[in-house]
């Protein structure tokens, strides 16, 4: 399928026509953690294609899955010259993959119980990320037995020691943050939050469940307002991010009003549907998100087992496919051993169009305009001229991936269209 080139405006001829300049921040500050809806760190589910999909659909920042400090230290960094994918390879597999496209929005999460190792781990990846986050909430034994994750909640000296070391040793362009859980009482939680805030972190995410609560128990969101008011009274400049039971960007507004949180972080709902960051999330995921996601993964050369795992977590609220078609689609994916086995579903495309669509959505996000104290740190950039159609061209380029409709080429499932159109992206300040 041939595509017309994207229309571009002619270059300005002289100084009087030159684009004006605006200020842009090229690193994260406290403000970057405000008025946002974030993709939570998720082991397995928070893979690179999911993070890119979340960004495409409006996630403000994305967290990578927790990676234990020692695991990344000896990884070998490799860049795919075609796709640009950056892999940190361990002996048998990639420990972490990322892409330059997500760097301005990417927070790398560390599992650690040692300040020196945490700093070394952060330094290993810092050229490819914008911030590092310390996991202080994982209650699983593999994390806590080594003193990491939720075990840090009962060892605040070590927890704060790690954050202080990260802040001291990393360049100021790399943000430092922590993700904790509620402690059993408000007093204990406030005390811990104050200590963490005084280490100089940019943000603290509070998962509104205690260490012993199961994921399916309702998050104790109503406890957060008192904690946030306490932080404000202390006059500490740290963003507080709510986490727990938020279903999407529309719901994030409710959560913020209830809690007073600066931003909201979403895990489970995004695992089921990474387009939940849009005000109009995709509902019919089998016909839209699944084929799009598979193509993107194929282009990025994402490990098939990871792709398969993530796709099988997707759930929509409504499907145009019959139950039989959905069942057939799922069993085809479940049986597939590689991308070629799902060509019936994704077609034989390389996925490049899909990636371009993501790139266009991410790159056209409005830049964050620096506020007050940030002005001095801002760099100037030219404001791109508005996209206009050159006089010799009749129609502007339509905003689609250009991928053929699936129904035209494949017998099963007939209704899948394979297009995951960009849904309206919430403006960065839209959650005030
Ligand atoms: C599949 C999965 C993997 C997770 N992995 C991590 C992780 O790597 N680091 C972390 O801090 N929390 C992790 N969590 C916890 C989430 O980030 C989040 O705190 C929790 O699910 C509550 O948010 P929710 O109510 O929106 O699901 C994970 C959760 C899920 C569902």
Automatic annotation (TrEMBL):
Keyword Transit peptide: no
Swiss-Prot/TrEMBL keywords: Flavoprotein, FMN, mRNA processing, Oxidoreductase, tRNA processing
Biological processes, Gene Ontology terms: mRNA processing
Acidic residues bias: start-end ranges: 374-383
A Pfam cross-reference name: Dus
Annotated CDD domains: DUS_like_FMN
Cellular component terms per the entry's GO annotation: cytoplasm
Gene3D superfamilies: Aldolase class I
Superkingdom classification of source: Eukaryota
Catalyzed reactions per annotation: a 5,6-dihydrouridine in mRNA + NADP(+) = a uridine in mRNA + NADPH + H(+); a 5,6-dihydrouridine in mRNA + NAD(+) = a uridine in mRNA + NADH + H(+)
Residue ranges constituting the DUS-like FMN-binding domain according to the UniProt record: 39-339
Cofactor(s) the protein needs: FMN
InterPro entries reported in the protein's UniProt record: Aldolase_TIM, DUS-like_FMN-bd, tRNA-DUS-like, tRNA_hU_synthase_CS
Disordered, as annotated region: 1-23, 366-409
Polar residues compositional bias, start-end: 1-11
One Gene Ontology MF term: tRNA dihydrouridine synthase activity
Name of the molecule in the record: FMN-linked oxidoreductase
Biological source species: Rhizopogon vinicolor AM-OR11-026
Lineage: Eukaryota, Fungi, Dikarya, Basidiomycota, Agaricomycotina
């Amino acid at each position: 399928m041939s595509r017309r080139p994207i229309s571009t405006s002619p270059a300005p001829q002289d100084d009087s026509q030159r684009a004006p300049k605006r200020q842009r921040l090229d690193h994260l500050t406290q403000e970057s953690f405000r008025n946002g809806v974030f993709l939570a760190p998720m082991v397995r589910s928070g893979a690179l294609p999911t993070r890119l999909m979340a960004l495409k659909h409006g996630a403000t920042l994305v967290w990578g899955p927790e990676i234990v400090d020692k695991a990344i230290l000896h990884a070998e960094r490799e860049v795919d010259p075609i796709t640009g994918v950056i892999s940190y390879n361990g002996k048998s597999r990639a420990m972490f993959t990322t892409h330059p496209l997500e760097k301005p929005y990417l927070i790398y999460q560390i599992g650690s119980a040692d300040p020196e190792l945490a700093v070394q781990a952060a330094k290993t990846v810092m050229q490819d990320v914008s911030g590092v986050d310390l996991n202080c909430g994982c209650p699983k034994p593999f994390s806590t037995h080594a003193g990491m994750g939720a075990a840090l909640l009962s060892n605040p000296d070590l927890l704060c020691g790690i954050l202080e070391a990260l802040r001291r040793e990393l360049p100021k362009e790399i943000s430092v943050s922590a993700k904790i859980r509620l402690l059993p009482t408000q007093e204990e939680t406030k005390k811990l939050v104050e200590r963490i805030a005084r280490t100089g972190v940019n943000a603290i995410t509070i998962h509104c469940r205690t260490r012993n609560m199961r994921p399916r128990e309702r998050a104790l969101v109503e406890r957060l307002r008192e904690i946030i008011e306490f932080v404000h009274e202390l006059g500490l400049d740290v963003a507080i991010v709510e986490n727990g039971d938020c279903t999407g960007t529309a719901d994030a507004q409710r959560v913020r009003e209830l809690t007073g949180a600066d931003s909201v972080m979403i895990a489970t709902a995004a695992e089921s549907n990474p387009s939940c960051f849009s005000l109009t999330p995709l509902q019919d995921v089998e016909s839209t998100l699944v084929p799009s996601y598979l193509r993107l993964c194929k282009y990025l050369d994402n490990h098939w087992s990871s792709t398969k795992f993530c796709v099988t977590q997707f759930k929509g609220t409504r499907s145009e496919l019959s139950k039989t078609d959905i069942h057939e689609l799922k069993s085809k994916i479940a049986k597939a051993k590689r991308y070629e086995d799902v060509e019936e579903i994704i077609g034989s495309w390389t996925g490049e169009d899909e990636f371009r669509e993501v790139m266009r959505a991410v790159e056209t996000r409005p830049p964050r305009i620096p506020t007050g104290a940030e002005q001095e740190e801002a760099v100037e950039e030219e404001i791109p001229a508005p996209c206009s159609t050159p006089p010799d061209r009749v129609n502007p380029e339509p905003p689609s991936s250009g991928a053929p409709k699936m129904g035209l080429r494949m017998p099963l499932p007939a209704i899948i269209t394979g297009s995951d159109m960009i849904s309206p992206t919430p403006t960065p300040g839209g959650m005030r």
